[in-house]
Design goal:
binds magnesium ion, Phosphorylase Kinase, domain 1, globular, Phosphatidylinositol 3-kinase Catalytic Subunit, Chain A, Domain 5, binds adenosine-5'-triphosphate, alpha+beta, 19% strand, three-stranded antiparallel beta sheet, six-stranded mixed beta sheet
């Protein structure tokens, strides 16, 4: 069976379109490019450059695969692309910044790419200044989304600590897709180390906070709690088909000691997500 996340070489890269403007508030360099994907065919994709020695890339891969296994809406295709620097316009400007100095030593860069979804970042489809009323409006809409409970359960499982409203693409009324799994475990940066992995910890589940941002008396409705816990109870079964691919990527991208520790963390959390959620919702 072909891998869900394929590795595309330079030949599959059709063209560079543009860098995303930094006023979109994204942290990593992101560009839009066109590719010939072996399954999807001609594909427009959002591509994010990652330092392979940091954890952002493995976070993205694990997050995408687990979201896929659970069956939540996200970009249809995700793939890696290794591109010679000269194929990316104005990369020299980027390299000048100290944040991206790691690019200077490389001939090629590795990108995590997701096929374009038609939607707007949930927060920034609104024109600034963003009022409190607008935020409560988004929070209310997000909390009525059918997959909201299941998304809380997903983020609890993978310790996603960065699902702010811009990491949801709004597809329509009460309808969203999940993007950007670059930050797991550690809120402050894409990197984590073994001492930060605690399968029993309640990491900052930002998407859950949408409940509290609503203008609503009840903090978490029974319906949302029930949907989150029921979804979590199916994680172990649903994740089985992608386990071997997760193992492949962990072996490829992490040193052995971190690989074992992260694998155990992911397996323990998958098993314990119902318990973690019940702790959070104080129902046990
Ligand atoms: N597959 C996609 N389809 C449509 N838009 C996308 C897609 N992927 C990313 N985007 C847009 O690009 C923006 C930046 O992408 P992404 O969130 O992955 O990068 P980031 O730099 O890590 O962001 P952050 O500020 O959360 O760190 C998103 O907020 C979204 O507007
Ligand atoms: Mg983002």
């Amino acid at each position: 069976m072909p891998r869900i996340i394929q590795m595309l070489n330079e030949k599959a890269f059709v063209r560079f379109n543009n860098w995303l403007a930094s006023d979109d508030h994204h942290v990593n360099p992101v560009f839009i490019g066109e590719f010939n994907h072996p399954i999807a065919g001609h594909t427009e994709a959002f591509c994010k450059l990652y330092n392979p020695l940091e954890k952002g890339l493995i976070n993205e891969i694990v997050g995408y695969l687990i979201t896929y296994a659970i069956g939540l809406k996200q970009p249809e295709y995700a793939f890696l692309s290794v591109l010679p620097k000269e194929r990316l316009n104005e990369i020299s400007k980027l390299e000048k910044s100290s944040t991206y100095k790691w690019i200077r030593e490389k001939k090629s860069v590795i990108c995590f790419c997701t096929s374009r979804l038609d939607g707007h970042s949930a927060a920034f489809h609104l024109k600034p200044p963003i009022t409190e009323e607008a935020i409560t409006g988004i929070a209310d809409d997000v909390s009525k989304w059918n997959e909201y409970g299941a998304s809380i359960a997903l983020d609890e499982n993978i310790a996603h600590v960065d699902r702010h409203f811009n990491n949801l693409l709004r597809l329509g009324k009460q309808s969203y897709a999940l993007i950007d799994n670059g930050r797991l475990i550690n809120e402050k940066s894409e990197s984590w180390n073994l001492s930060m992995l605690n399968s029993k910890q309640l990491y900052n589940n930002k998407i859950l906070q949408a409940i509290n941002l609503r203008k609503c008396n009840k903090p978490a409705t029974d319906d949302i709690i029930t949907k989150a816990v029921l979804s979590a109870e199916m994680h172990t079964e649903k994740i089985k088909p992608i386990e071997s691919e997760v193992t492949f990527w962990l072996n490829t991208l992490l040193p052995e000691i971190e690989n074992d520790g992260f694998k155990k963390f992911l397996m323990d959390r998958t098993k314990d997500t119902p318990w973690l959620l019940k702790q959070r919702f104080k129902v046990i």
